[in-house]
Write a structure and sequence with these properties.
Layout (H helix, E strand, L loop, with lengths): L24 H15 L6 E7 L5 E7 L2 E2 L4 E6 L3 H8 L2 E8 L4 E11 L2 H10 L2 H9 L9 H14 L11 E15 L7 E7 L5 E6 L2
Antiparallel strand pairs: 1-2, 1-5, 3-4, 4-7, 5-6, 6-7, 7-8, 8-9
Length: 213
Amino acid sequence: MKDLSDYRKSYEKSELLENTIPDDAIQLFHKWFYEAEEQEDGEVNAMTVSSIGLDGFPKSRVVLLKKFNEEGFIFYTNYNSEKGKAILQNPNICISFFWPTLERQVIIKGTAEKTAAVISDTYFDSRPEGSKLGAIVSNQSEVIPSRAFLDEKLKVLENELSGSEIKRPENWGGFLVKPIEVEFWQGRANRLHDRIRYQLNQDFSWKIDRLSP
């Protein structure tokens, strides 16, 4: 067994105080996201999506956030995948972001629903041709015999659709996650981290609390 007891880091880059934050959780997310764009390497829009599977177990996976605004957070997937089926059965999910350079994470609880077809169509049309073909070829989460099987399916589809417009398959599209709770975590020294939680009220204002680290 590998002992990780000595893996330690002191978080001292920033702070999160009530007198410097907006009343609206999405405004603060905007601020943090743009700061992450400036300072983080890699895909700052990478987020972990956690859902309850059809087998009753929670499962998490990393996907890419493609749009966010006051209404919520949008990502795209195959609706017939393990992830898609789980969310359609139980739309209560959690998405989270971790930006290590800034020593920050954001945890968002919300409900997911399919985006309108026109939104999914617009995004699909903006994708590179290879990504469009990949979305059609892959029966996501299904067992396949080999990588060669997948590559061959792609070659066949490339020949079939050569020179043709590639349409979005009906089983592929977006999910909009509407937040009901957003927690902002800022690493601090001595493990006394700042945790600020926003909870959505019935009038769509936000209740703000500080949580013990």
